[in-house]
Design goal:
Elements lengths: L2 E4 L9 E6 L5 E6 L7 H30 L53 H14 L4 H9 L2 H5 L11 H19 L13 H16 L1 H8 L8 H9 L11 H9 L24 H9 L9 H5 L12 H4 L4 E6 L8 E5 L5 E7 L7 H14 L6 H12 L3 H9 L10 H15 L6 H15 L1 H13 L3 H34 L1
Parallel strand pairs: 1-3, 4-6
Antiparallel strand pairs: 2-3, 5-6
Pfam family, one: DUF247
InterPro entries: DUF247_pln
Keywords: Membrane, Transmembrane, Transmembrane helix
C-alpha cells in the first residue's frame, strides 16, 4: 500500500505531488513545497510588525501635529483651546493604590506611579516639549521608541510594581515624554541655540513653555527628587543617542546639566566632587545623581561586618548638644567637604576638650521632603551607602530640644531660616522614626564611640561642669579671669610687703 510523505513546513498553498518507488517496490507520494513556501509565514509576521510600527508612528506624528496646530491657543499657566480628544490622560491609567507617604507631586508627574495626580504640567504639555526637543536636538521620536523597545524589559525592572496596566506602547511613550520633559527643564539650550527659536510660532511656544518652567522651577525640582517620581537614567541618555548631532554633545552632558539644575537645593553639592570624577557610578535616576553629589566620598558605606554580623542599632545613641557641653564639648562649623559629614576630635591640654564639626545646615520648608526621599533611597539601595541615614540619626540625638537648636545656631551650624526651633527638632524626630531599627555604617559607630568615650572621661566632665558653673558666658569668664589676676597681683603685693617688713627688721 502506498503512503504519502510531506516535506517542508505546512502552508496554505497546495504542495506539488511526486510519486517515487521505495526499496520494497511500493509507491511513495512525496509532496514537495515550492522554494518560497517555507518563508511565507515569516514574511507575513514581518509585514504585520511593520504595519503595527507604521500605525504607531502615525499616532505619534498625529499627536505632535495637533500639538503644533493648537500651540498658539495655549495660555500660560492655564491652557485653553486644547482639543479634548488629542491626548486623553485616561489613556495612561493611574496606579491609585500607591501610597504617597510624605507629599504628592504638584508640578509634574514622572514615571508611572503619579499618573493620576493633578499637576501643573499635563501630558499635553509634555507632547509640546517632545516636539521642541525633537526639533532642537534633531531627534526622531519614533526612532527613540524603536530603540527603547529593545530595552523595555530593563526599564520595567526599575519599578517594584508589575505595571500590567501599561501596555508596551503606552509605557514607552511614557518614557519618551518624561525623558523629553526632564531634558527640557535641565537644559539651558545655549550651546545649540540659533536665531530661529526667537521667531515664529515655534519660538512663541518655546518661550511660553520656558516661562512656565522658570515660574515653577522650585516645585519641579522637588518633584524630580521624589523616589516614586523617577524614570531610568538611561531612558534620558537614549534621547541624545537617537540624535543625528551626537558629535555636538559633551560627555556627561545630562549629568552636568542636572547638577547645575539642582545646585540651589539644600543640602548643597559636596565641594570636593565633580561629575567627571573617575569613581562616579552609573546613575539609576535623577535622585541617585543628586544623592551621589551630596554625600562624602568613601564614607558611610557598608562593609562585610556591617551586613553580616551586626544587629539592628536600636540602642546606638549619643547625648544631646546641651548635655555634651557638660564634658567640655564644643560645636564648630565645618567649611569644607560634604554638607552631610559630621566629625569629632579631641583637643586642648591632655585632650580634655572635644570638638564636633558639622557643616552649615539650612532647614527650609522643603527640607523634610528632600531628607525623607534621600533616606528612602538609601534604605532601598544599599550600594548608595547610609550617609543621610547616619546624618539624620546623629542630628536627631543632638537636637532634642529648642535649647539644643539655639546652641547650634549660636555656633553657626544651623543657618537662620524661616523654620523655627521646634520645627527643626520635629524634622529629625520624624526622620529618626523612619530609620529606626536600620543598620548603621561603621563610620557612625566610630563617631558615637569617640563622642561617648570623651563624654565619660572624668577630666572632661570636671572641666566642663566647672566651666558651665563658673564661666557660663564670655563676660563672666572675663570677670573671673580679671578677678584671678587681681587676686594674684594682691597676693604678690602682700608677699612683697611682708618680705620688705622682715628685711627692714634685720637691718635694725
Amino acid at each position: 500500500m502506498g503512503r504519502k510523505q510531506y516535506c517542508g513546513s505546512s502552508s496554505s498553498e497546495s504542495p506539488t505531488e511526486e510519486v517515487v518507488r521505495g526499496g520494497g517496490g511500493e509507491e511513495i507520494s512525496i509532496f514537495i513545497r515550492s522554494p518560497n513556501e517555507g518563508t511565507d509565514g515569516e514574511e507575513e509576521e514581518e509585514e504585520e510588525e511593520e504595519e503595527e510600527v507604521d500605525e504607531w508612528r502615525t499616532r505619534v506624528e498625529k499627536r505632535l501635529e495637533v500639538v503644533k496646530k493648537y500651540a498658539m491657543k495655549m495660555a500660560c499657566p492655564k491652557r485653553k483651546g486644547l482639543p479634548v480628544d488629542m491626548y486623553n490622560d485616561e489613556e495612561i491609567p493611574a496606579i491609585s493604590e500607591m501610597h504617597i507617604e510624605h507629599r504628592p507631586v504638584k508640578a509634574v508627574a514622572i514615571g508611572p506611579y503619579h499618573r493620576g495626580d493633578k499637576v501643573l504640567f499635563t501630558n499635553v504639555d509634555k507632547w509640546r516639549v517632545v516636539r521642541i526637543i525633537a526639533k532642537w536636538y534633531a531627534i526622531d521620536p519614533m526612532g527613540y521608541l524603536t530603540r527603547m523597545k529593545e530595552k523595555e524589559a530593563d526599564a520595567r525592572m526599575y519599578y517594584s510594581a508589575d505595571l500590567s496596566e501599561f501596555n508596551s506602547e503606552s509605557f514607552l511613550e511614557l518614557l519618551l515624554v518624561d525623558a523629553c520633559f526632564i531634558l527640557f527643564v535641565i537644559s539651558t539650550f545655549e550651546d545649540y541655540a540659533d536665531g530661529s527659536w526667537s521667531k515664529g510660532e515655534d519660538g512663541t511656544e518655546y518661550l511660553n513653555l520656558l516661562m512656565d518652567v522658570k515660574v515653577n522651577a522650585k516645585q519641579i525640582k522637588l518633584d524630580l527628587l521624589m523616589l516614586e517620581n523617577q524614570i531610568p537614567f538611561f531612558a534620558i541618555e537614549e534621547l541624545l543617542k537617537a540624535s543625528t548631532n551626537q558629535a555636538n554633545f559633551e560627555k556627561n552632558l545630562i549629568e552636568s546639566q542636572a547638577l547645575l539644575f539642582f545646585d540651589d537645593i539644600y543640602p548643597r553639592r559636596d565641594r570636593d566632587k565633580g561629575i567627571r570624577d573617575v569613581d562616579s557610578p552609573r546613575f539609576h535616576h535623577l535622585l541617585h545623581l543628586f544623592h551621589w553629589s551630596r554625600v562624602p566620598r568613601g564614607k558611610y558605606e557598608f562593609g562585610a561586618a556591617s551586613l553580616l554580623f551586626r544587629k539592628t542599632d536600636l540602642t546606638l545613641a549619643i547625648p544631646s548638644a546641651t548635655e555634651l557641653r557638660q564634658s567640655a564639648t564644643r560645636f564648630r562649623k565645618e567649611v569644607s567637604g560634604s554638607f552631610l559629614d559630621i566629625t569629632f576630635e579631641n583637643c586642648g591640654v591632655m585632650k580634655v576638650c572635644g570638638v564636633v564639626k558639622i557643616p552649615t545646615l539650612h532647614i527650609l520648608d522643603y527640607s523634610s521632603t528632600i531628607f525623607h526621599n534621600l533616606v528612602a533611597f538609601e534604605k532601598q539601595y544599599k550600594g548608595s551607602g547610609r550617609c543621610v541615614v547616619a546624618y539624620s540619626a546623629c542630628m536627631a540625638h543632638l537636637l532634642q530640644s529648642k535649647e539644643d537648636v539655639k546652641l547650634l545656631r549660636k555656633s553657626g551650624i544651623l543657618a537662620n531660616t524661616n523654620v523655627n526651633d521646634i520645627d527643626a527638632v520635629n524634622l529629625f524626630a520624624s526622620l529618626s522614626e523612619e530609620i529606626g531599627g536600620s543598620l548603621m555604617p561603621d563610620d557612625l559607630h566610630a563617631l558615637y564611640s569617640q563622642v561617648t568615650k570623651h563624654h565619660r572621661q572624668w577630666r572632661s566632665r570636671w572641666y566642663g561642669e566647672t566651666t558651665l558653673q563658673y564661666c557660663p558666658n564670655l563676660w563672666i569668664t572675663i570677670s573671673v579671669i580679671g578677678a584671678l589676676l587681681l587676686f594674684l597681683l594682691t597676693a604678690v603685693q602682700t608677699v612683697y610687703s611682708v618680705l620688705s617688713y622682715y628685711a627692714s627688721l634685720k637691718n635694725k
